[in-house]
Amino acid sequence: MSNFEIYLLIGFFGFLFTLNSLAIYIVLNTYFKVKERRLYQILFVWLLPYIGAMFTIYINKQDYYDQKLARKESGFTDFFATTSYEATNHRGGR
């Protein structure tokens, strides 16, 4: 194996690792009511490296924009609030 091929493989695996890390960062920073969804998406990212990461990033970004649009239409200012009761009684994690 030549040095070029070795560098190409290192670059490819570095790209996959970076993409998977980005996907996991997005999953961990997206709000889900069901906490197991995060675990399943993280497993999906690492079991199918490129396809899983791209699919997970797409789904989470789509959910983020859907949540943002719903908040804008309903007038909620709190990101984690899903009902009017939660919006009025949310204490900021205290």
Describe the protein's architecture and organization.
By secondary structure, this protein is mainly alpha-helical. The protein has one domain (about 5-90). The chain is about 75% helix and about 0% strand. It has helices at about 5-30, 35-45, 50-75, 85-90. It is elongated, with a radius of gyration of 18 Å. The chain starts with a helix and ends in a 5-residue tail after the last helix.
Characteristic terms for this protein:
0% strand; single chain; 94 residues; 4 helices; mainly alpha
- Report the major sheet: none
Radius of gyration, in Å, reads 18 Å
Poorly predicted parts: none
Proportion of residues in helical segments: over 70%
What's a quick, concise take on this entry?
It is built from four helices and no strands. It has helices spanning 3-28, 36-47, 49-74, 84-89.
Describe the protein's topology.
Layout: H1 3-28, H2 36-47, H3 49-74, H4 84-89
Helix pairs in contact: 1-2, 1-3, 2-3
